[in-house]
Amino acid sequence: MSDIPRDILTGALRRSSVKKHVAAIHVSGRLTLLQRKLSNVLLLNAYDLLGQQQTFQIDAKTLAMMVGYNSNDTDTLKQSLRGLAETVAEWDMLDDNGRQEWGVSALLSFATLKEGVCTYAYSPALAEKLRDPKVFALINLNIQRRFTSGHALALYENCYRFVRTGSTGWWPLDTFRRLMGVADSTYYEIYKHLNAKIIKPAVAEVNATSNIVIRAETRKRGRSVTDIRFLIEKNPQLAILDLDDGAGLRKGPIYARLIEIGISDRLARQWLSEHGEDEVERKLDYVAGQGGVRNAARYLAAALRDDYQETATPVAPSSERGARLGRIRDLVAARTPTQRDADKRLFQSRLSGPKRDDFERHGWMSALNHAEICAFWNDIVPDAFDGHDAAAP
Description:
Layout: E1 17-21, H1 22-27, H2 33-46, E2 55-59, H3 60-67, H4 74-86, E3 88-94, E4 100-106, E5 110-114, E6 117-121, H5 124-130, E7 136-140, H6 141-144, H7 150-160, E8 171-172, H8 173-179, H9 191-209, E9 212-221, E10 224-234, H10 247-250, H11 253-260, H12 265-288, H13 296-306, H14 320-333, H15 337-349, H16 353-362, H17 370-380
Antiparallel strand pairs: 1-7, 2-6, 3-4, 5-6, 8-10, 9-10
């Protein structure tokens, strides 16, 4: 399965991974493969705003694309979202003062689908746990798309957070069966069945699919297996899939220049990942050379978005074309981030050759696609260009 096309996503969705709270990982064993993938993408989409807002939105087609399933199958999507709302998350951990805290919550407090947009929310208690920076594991979304078994993905999630220590530590078999979502099955109370149907296939898929290699070890009492642990090593053949969590980027001089002009840590790392250090440095130099710029951060964002060049000549704002470009900017700004992702992806899918290249370079300001862009927005917002002479330039 191909990787998620980052060039058609923006914001948090451009990341390669999602930070998952260990509590969420431990209680989601009963989820189907699709539900587990949806849970990760929904968390990725919401992560930056957890604690700041209560509800979140993502375009349904974008959601389907990121988990790799047929976007037209809304019944399956509804069923999977229903499953997330009906699945209980349970955590048992120490708080900041060393006191034991137990809690329980639905994975999603609600989810709706309306006009192609999925709106959802977490309970306040679970949202607080999900954004706790001390207890995160990083789950690579490009890797999760490759899994075909929910048990294998569950095992990967529960092992990956121990990659630095090299071992999960010993789990009682009852705990392991719960992590795999088979705690209620009497069939899997027999270790021979658990090993043949769950452990061996899941280990094989993790080793073949992911950026880690794991090996199971068991501990016995008498002749009965009582505990299991997994030894973990990085998979050198798939190490390229590992996420750089930003530690490397933060050491560079270009990152320092971005922070100096007021760019946030998250946005600085996002721009460096999207555009590369050389391109960001060129745009920083361009902005610095303009003189008298009141808001360097905003100007840099526009320079990166619209690929400002030293030789570029601004379009006269009084021209009809300039008026239409201004209207296009307004139309784009009025859309939600997930809608903008979907709009760009849909329009880009209609292009090929030089026109596609020009759109990738200049976005909605693409001169080569101006007539098609106007027609596209007219379809989305009827009479969008009334008074702006939206005929072909």
